[in-house]
Amino acid sequence: MHRHQTVLLFGPPGSGKGTQGRILGDIPGYYHCACGDVFRRLDPNTELGQTFLSYSSRGELVPDEVTVKIWHAHIKKVEAVGAYKSHSDLLILDGIPRNVEQAKLLDEELEVLRLINLACPDEEAMIERLRRRALKENRADDAKEDVIRHRWDVYRAETQHVLDHYPAEMISEVNAQNSPAEVLRDVLDIVIPIQTAHYRRLAAEGQTA
Hints:
The chain has 8 helices and 5 strands. The protein is an alpha/beta fold. The protein has a single domain, classed as 3-Layer(aba) Sandwich (Rossmann fold). It has a 5-stranded parallel sheet. It is globular, with a radius of gyration of 17 Å. The model has no long low-confidence stretch (mean pLDDT 90).
């Protein structure tokens, strides 16, 4: 079974996963998939869209199996239209897996080449950054400190444990509290050699990127 050659962007709320992922996604040879965007763009008239709404409308979390199924359907769709060339593009994922169970379910689909952990050593500074960002983007509910702290509590209780699912040598840490340009530089230092090795492997197999 073909497994997607993948780099995971990982980190707590506000660490810049989406920002870095979008930048990488604009570079040839990378395809960025943000799970949050996948959920927001679900067609409510489809079976998966209706399944998602049946949970979200009740304020319930979508089960892990359904989350992975929705992600899988999206990947198949972008492959079918040629937006993502799975044989040659590196898949840049953020927002999934959100917990260890999702990571286990995705093991069959992903060959994770590297996990980039966008670390935030100063939690209070990051909470203030999230508050300012929400106000700037006119998302008043997201600017509430108790809402932000709850998101961090969920990250610590569930998502952070995903780091234990992958071998330590697969994980690279980047300080997400540096400037966005510095973070991008550090991320590129990690992913460029991965892409180079990937292209060399394709060439050795007689394939083209």
